Amino acid sequence: MDDRITAAKQALGRECVILGHHYQRDEVIKFADFRGDSYKLSQQAAQAAGRYIVFCGVHFMAESADILGRASQQVILPDLNAGCSMADMAEIGQVEDCWEQLVGLGLTSDSGDQVTPITYINSTAAIKAFCGERGGLVCTSSNAAGAFRWAFAKTAKLFFLPDQHLGRNTGYAMGIPLADMVTWDPYLPMGGLTRERLRSARVILWKGHCSVHQRFLPEHVDNVRERYPGIRVIVHPECRWEVCQKADALGSTEKLIKMVMEAPAGAKFAIGTEIHLVNRLAKQHPDKIVVTLDDSGCLCTTMFRISPQHLCWALENLVEGSVVNRIAVRDEVKYWARVALDRMLEIQ
Predict the structure, then answer these.
(1) Would you say 291 and 270 are in contact if contact means Cβ atoms under 8 Å apart?
(2) DSSP 296
(3) What is the distance between the alpha carbons of residues 33 and 274, in angstroms, rounded to a whole number?
(4) How far is C-alpha 83 from the geometric centre of its chain's CA atoms?
């Protein structure tokens, strides 16, 4: 399989660029021309020179690549079943219904003049377009604080979706009390909130989460400290607030990698993020102790669906002149989603 993938890559040459998310399995990511988290790969997708962008990630990432790429480029997702449970938790119809209720309560207008919507990049193109059209933007875990500052410079209130934990952790780190942040449950009347709570809140969070990072619990932090005295606990801000409060540091995927890379020999880390990345860091830094925060191993099952077989199949089809599993965002959605993504790329 490795030989076939290598041969197909060589045959395609510069016409094909393979992007690989850090959570990919080793058997796949070793073929990536560029590796990164969502933010870094978004930038690389926008700058990619190849005619074909083969995205070894999940569906929303491939959508972002298509939005940011040139008209002459085509984006391929090796397995269409590679989705994102978090992105699926914010369905466009539910989000539009929520917004209509906020407008009905007089909290904002259709254009978002009193509430700025921000969507985490782990969302569908339709949600990104929704935010772009209403004066909002996209953010990643790398620049969520910058997105909050950008939004608060416009309006006194913001609407953050779909990951409640990233929104809560970001707001709290910026000095916003938990009492000033509320969570909208799309399956309850008026989000399960009162008119007064919605009026007083500075941040309205969508009730969504990452199925991987939600599995980390406060007791996991206590247990790992007991087993490894002096260990440094570092976690992704998609983890629960209670876990983040017990951790020594929070960081995006890129930041977590940097922390381990720059630490001296003998350093000890327990990392609260996807298991493939943790195992890869442990192999790359044998002079340090790197363990997962949860021994059960938190695997991103949808990312794992991108296999060497799928990658090989997609590449060999390209060699034969056939484009399979193309991800193409509709023009009317692409315009406003591009606006929201361009705003993201401009902030720090």
Answers:
(1) yes
(2) T
(3) 21
(4) 12
Q: Helices marked H in 230-305 — which ranges?
A: 241-246, 253-262, 275-284
Pairing outcome for strands 268-272 and 203-206: unpaired
- 100-to-105, 155, 164, 208, 304 alpha-carbon distances in Å: 9, 18, 20, 19, 37
Residue with tokens 């941040």: 203
The amino acid present at 321, given as its one-letter code, is G
The pLDDT, as a whole number, for residue 71 is: 87
* pLDDT score of 83 more than 90: no
Cut 0.85: pTM above it? yes
Which residue is listed with tokens 């990345």?
Answer: 277
Cα dihedral 63, 64, 66, 69 in deg (nearest 10): -170
What are the structural domains of the chain? 2-82+303-330 (3.40.50.10800), 87-209 (3.40.50.10800), 213-292 (3.40.50.10800)
Cα 217 to its chain centre, rounded Å, is: 20
pLDDT value at 344 more than 80: yes
249-250 and 232-235 as β-strands: parallel, antiparallel, unpaired?
Answer: parallel
CB-based contacts of 313, cutoff 8 Å, min separation 6: 78, 324
Single-letter amino acid, residue 24: Q
End-to-end CA, the chain: 41
CB distance 165 to 93 below 8 Å: no
CA separation for the pair 230, 239 (Å, rounded): 22
pLDDT of 348: 64
Q: Half-sphere exposure of residue 312, counting CA atoms within 13 Å on the CB side?
A: 11
Q: How far apart are CA 177 and CA 74, in angstroms?
A: 45
